[in-house]
Sequence to fold (888 residues):
Amino acid sequence: MSDKYQSFSQSPLGKLLVKNLGLPAPMKLERYAEGAPLVDGVVALGGRGRLAESLGGILSQLGVESTDAPAEGSRLKGLVFDATGLTSSDRLVALRDFFTPLMRSLATCPRVVVLGTPPELLEGGERVAQRALEGFTRSLGKEIGRGGTVQLVYVAEGAEASVASTLGFLLSPKSAYVSGQVVRIGATGSTDAPAVTDWTRPLAGKVALVTGASRGIGEQIARVLHRDGATVVGVDVPQAADGLVELMNELDGDWLTLDITAKDAPQRIAQHLKDKHGGVDVVVHNAGITRDKKLANMSEDRWESVIAVNLTAPERISRELLDQGVVNAHGSIVGVASIAGIAGNVGQTNYAASKAGVIGLVDSLKGELTDGITVNAVAPGFIITQMTAAVPFVTREVGQRLNAMSQGGLPVDVAETVAWYADPASSAVNGNVVRVCGQMMLGA
Amino acid sequence: MSDKYQSFSQSPLGKLLVKNLGLPAPMKLERYAEGAPLVDGVVALGGRGRLAESLGGILSQLGVESTDAPAEGSRLKGLVFDATGLTSSDRLVALRDFFTPLMRSLATCPRVVVLGTPPELLEGGERVAQRALEGFTRSLGKEIGRGGTVQLVYVAEGAEASVASTLGFLLSPKSAYVSGQVVRIGATGSTDAPAVTDWTRPLAGKVALVTGASRGIGEQIARVLHRDGATVVGVDVPQAADGLVELMNELDGDWLTLDITAKDAPQRIAQHLKDKHGGVDVVVHNAGITRDKKLANMSEDRWESVIAVNLTAPERISRELLDQGVVNAHGSIVGVASIAGIAGNVGQTNYAASKAGVIGLVDSLKGELTDGITVNAVAPGFIITQMTAAVPFVTREVGQRLNAMSQGGLPVDVAETVAWYADPASSAVNGNVVRVCGQMMLGA
Fold:
């Protein structure tokens, strides 16, 4: 599962070849290690708007050092720009005026966050200017290099105090493989969130259900939610029981083996969570399958099994848990979509329909949830797992390099993103679909 | 400007190499010729929903032959499926049941259109199922091959009678380079539109303003709007006056030379249109510039000139024309965005911000327009012009092949899309951003 090209490209001979042939030079991405500070360096703040004044205080609560006036020659680990004050297109030049002089002062794997107001909540020229920010951040993500990430975070009026968990995630190595994304805070649902108390264990005392938890991305999600303090209830099919039980024992968790497409599965899950845990705080619909064929050769069985596992089951389970009131206040439901669900893919009319449907599930629930419960999805790009290890070399190489990081992501990158959604301090982060893709080129 | 690789790949030797090396095999795309029928073949209809019953009649008004029961072994030029009846995810299998048996009966450059209901107007499981359609159509667009196109058209309730101009465009060779797109009809603004009278000259008696009209894509837009019956008023900078005057004389049009970023430009344009034409029906903001640099090296001048021409000028001109009531009922405003404005691009923080802002302009106007006036944008991908001819060979080759058609588009492809928006019968087509990109892989 290691990236041999990346190791080679960082050897003396590799560096020489990469430079002379113009090959991709994937940077070794920094990732979060338990016990480390969130940000290993100083973050420079800029811009004038609704958020600027409180940013320093919010970061300081997370143990992150920031400055309004970076010293000459200092190395900056992050840049945060409050663009909420840019109310017309001719004022966008403030972006250039802040960023251009600082671009050469960035440390490795730097983090850039631009804060704006959700355009759909604005009118006229202000809406235009705020929408323009997206072209800026997506371009900067593609050119920043050296493992850097760039995000646009739209914060609704009234949600200013609810940005801590999101800034903590996006400024830290937890978001190593998340770049070029647009996040909305408080645009739908709740605009306020419980304060961050202990950011190292935000899920202490919480219960997290994870489907498909026995291996791969599901296993990492279980591990990261456990690290953050949750009791994990792993779900998988009976055939995967051995791996599931072993993992849940390791994590002091609980398990349930069933086929999520069974008619009584939602009811059984709800009953189990009520009886043994008194409810659930985090629901991660991770289980998924592929049955690829071009549409000309697609059997009804291939179509129906993919839709049933990837889409209808998450719909029915979410509905049952919500209708029975099993999801606790400030809880979160997390779907797993896919780049294929956004861009489409050859041989995947069934899979892409199911994953686009997961985005539809987020959209359909985001407006009706109460008590600070949220629904969001992750959309993984090329994530290195046992499954992708079986992909032929050239296809895998091309797939891995078609992103701003020139490398595949790791299951932990998806898991960290899920953990950010799951944090009760993310109660105003609702209705988002964030790609975990190293800003992969593919899209729509 | 010809595509030498495409010609070569269709020669006997080229065909052999393409097949044995697995190279892209771009199909020669059929394009619309004046006087030809809209669709050269039979369209098969399927699905059961709000639209199914009226589709045959609508197509027949456009001179298009359709059938509910295609004869065994017949070659089909198009497939239209009414998916508005699919109210839950388990019913999506109806897509497979209709399309799979027909996929081998398609003629060259086939056209597929799936009709749905805008998900944002629905709730619950129906919203999920309708959103899932997008993964299906985008995947099918990538695998259909042979110059085929696949679109998803969301038709709001009440807008059923307003689909004619859109079906005519998407089923005809006018949409040769448009694929994998999602179009909304009646989702914002007006849900009804004037009936199609003469589809060959929908703009007879209408006045169309085109900025940057002297050459390239602007020239083609002027030519196609003229073909469709419009009196074209071309606008360009004084330096381009010779080309502009020559073209407008050829098209029996009118012209105005000015710098659209000048303070008095919106007022001068409005006055000219009122005095000489009694108003305007179509406004195409085509003029645009690039001044590429990475952000680290971006001068204030490069930033400001790009924003001023590409974004602030279209905003100010639109505002002035609307405020003065110069835009006639059933008129249309058309912006030109770009794939870079959607996906971002290295060296284009300024350009991508301006083009994302054009999408913001569409969003900001779409809800406030009355009298059947619409606002939409085109987002061109790799379009072959004199500008792209100067791009180095390898970069150009890669750029041209990174799409489902394995070839660049032509300026006329952008122009035909503008003409579809401009058609008074498209009065319910509002708030759209349609890519003209051969379903380019790049996106967000």
Q: What stands out?
A: Residues 207-436 of chain B form a domain with the Rossmann fold fold (CATH 3.40.50.720). The radius of gyration of chain B is 21 Å. Chain B has 15 helices and 13 strands. Chain B touches chain A through 78 residues (CB under 8 Å).
